[in-house]
């Protein structure tokens, strides 16, 4: 085992499931100490039983859109570990998938506050810790953040993912003096709970006239979606010193969907 993250400390939001959970396992395997933050406390508890090296795993239940709770969780984890090197800003929701006229102000709050405000707040609270020694921040955006992906009904989600991308690029510029790198990953379809919990079929059949090519046929590779661990390989690369000269960039991991 390479143990290339030995003595590194990482915080992961949305860490109890899907891409975050898979990345936690990868970071732990590479020798890191990992602090997980998730709004789902039960899933965090259950995770400990399913994970190796859990002596190096701490977790806190917090909502990334709640400033006070999130700050307490981040500061508490960093205090416990002693320092911070890596932040994986990953918590997110698809939100309500529906035609624009059916979306509500509440839908706006839920999607934008989880995905974008959560990214801003997490960045705000990890930066003071990362400034000590420099570090790497990886933000989970989406192919939806930069192009229409055939997901009619995902206007709020796409806007939140585009906001993450613009924010991350400005952060990369601003934080470069502190040797803090910031990069965005843009997954296509990944097989996680977020997809199971979203009612695309309802939209396709009953609400949206324009054919939606999702999930079938949208990705030249792996039409049925990527495995979370394929995404964590990329997160690991961007989080580690292997990518020491890469900042402010967006990396697509979408089975080639952006070619279509
Ligand atoms: P997932 O549902 O398995 O994981 C998301 C995690 O975020 C869950 O553990 C959930 O409890 C947590 N979370 C949700 N709201 C939160 C909040 N307010 N505070 C703290 N935690 C919260 O789904 P995933 O696919 O692993 O999603 C991870 C990221 O990947 C998201 O940002 C998502 O938008 C993005 N993404 C996913 C796909 C895909 O196809 N699965 C594609 C592109 C981007």
Automatic annotation (TrEMBL):
UniProtKB keywords: Oxidoreductase
Any one GO biological process: bile acid metabolic process
Sequence intervals crossing the membrane: none
GO molecular function, one term: oxidoreductase activity
Xref: InterPro entries: NAD(P)-bd_dom_sf (IPR036291), SDR_fam (IPR002347)
Domain of life: Bacteria
Similarity-based family: Belongs to the short-chain dehydrogenases/reductases (SDR) family.
Protein's name in the database: NAD(P)-dependent dehydrogenase (Short-subunit alcohol dehydrogenase family)
Organism: Streptohalobacillus salinus
């Amino acid at each position: 085992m390479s143990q290339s993250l030995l003595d590194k400390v990482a915080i992961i939001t949305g860490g109890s499931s899907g891409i975050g959970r898979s990345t936690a396992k990868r970071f732990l395997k590479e020798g890191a100490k990992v602090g997980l933050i998730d709004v789902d406390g039960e899933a965090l508890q259950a995770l400990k039983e399913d994970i190796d090296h859990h002596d190096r795993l701490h977790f806190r239940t917090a909502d990334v859109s709640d400033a006070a709770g999130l700050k307490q969780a981040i500061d508490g984890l960093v205090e416990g570990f002693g320092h911070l090197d890596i932040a994986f800003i990953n918590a997110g929701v698809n939100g309500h998938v529906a035609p624009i006229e059916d979306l509500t102000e509440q839908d706006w709050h839920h999607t934008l506050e989880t995905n974008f405000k959560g990214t801003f707040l997490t960045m705000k609270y990890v930066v003071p810790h990362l400034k000590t020694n420099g570090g790497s921040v990886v933000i989970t955006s989406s192919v939806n953040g930069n192009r229409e992906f055939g997901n009619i009904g995902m206007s709020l989600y796409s806007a939140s993912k585009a906001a993450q991308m613009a924010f991350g690029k400005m952060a990369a510029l601003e934080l470069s003096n502190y040797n803090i790198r910031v990069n965005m990953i843009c997954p296509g379809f990944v097989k996680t709970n977020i997809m199971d919990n979203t009612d695309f079929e309802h939209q396709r059949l009953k609400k949206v006239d324009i054919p939606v090519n999702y999930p079938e046929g949208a990705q030249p590779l792996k039409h049925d979606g990527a495995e979370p661990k394929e995404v964590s390989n990329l997160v690991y690369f961007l989080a580690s010193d292997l990518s020491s000269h890469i900042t402010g960039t967006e990396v697509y991991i979408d089975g080639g969907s952006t070619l279509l």
